Input
Amino acid sequence: MRAMRTYLRLLAPLALLGACAPALAQRYQVQPLPVQWYVDVGPSLTTGTTSDFLQDGWTLGTGFTVSPDPSGPFAIRTNFQYSRFNATNALLTQGAQANQTQIDDGYGQVLSADVDAVLRFPVSPYTHFYVMAGGGIAHRTIDLTQNVVSGGLACDGWFGFCGAYPAGSVVVASDSQTHATWNAGAGFDFGLPGGQSWFVEARYEEIETAQPTQFIPIRVGLRF
Output
């Protein structure tokens, strides 16, 4: 429920942006090409229990959209995404206690690939509102690190090994999992010349780990 309320709050500014579409898109119309590649980037907000151990982070990605009928409402989108988050202090403390070693920092990473069904609705000659939903697979890694000086001693709580390391950050505990993932979201397309467009969207994503990994990427991107 908390995740849904957060997601609805994020959709409000998207709706406001869509209302301003004629001014933003100038005189261009959104007429999707049969196949469009895209790139995107933006913040990624953790939610639910995930926010207890991972802070808000960032995301970037690429993919392509296939429109069987470019003038029609339906499309299929394939998405490849990378997201990164810093660990919370609570996770660092928990990791230090569980591994009986010093923990100075940590981070989480998510690599995902999914396929979404997209349904578009014209708002004006310049803009389309769209909704999407789908699923795929995601690999989540959480690494906890210890900072050491050159020749310093660090202990790997994961394998129980202590030894000398070069200066820098050493991973002393790690957890990697691959699971199914699903998502649902909405966004706006704003027309550019030649069938290109730029877009802004928000999605709720959940990875089916034992304790679900939940986050909301907000993406700004370009379709070409």
Helices lie at 2-19, 21-25, 89-99.
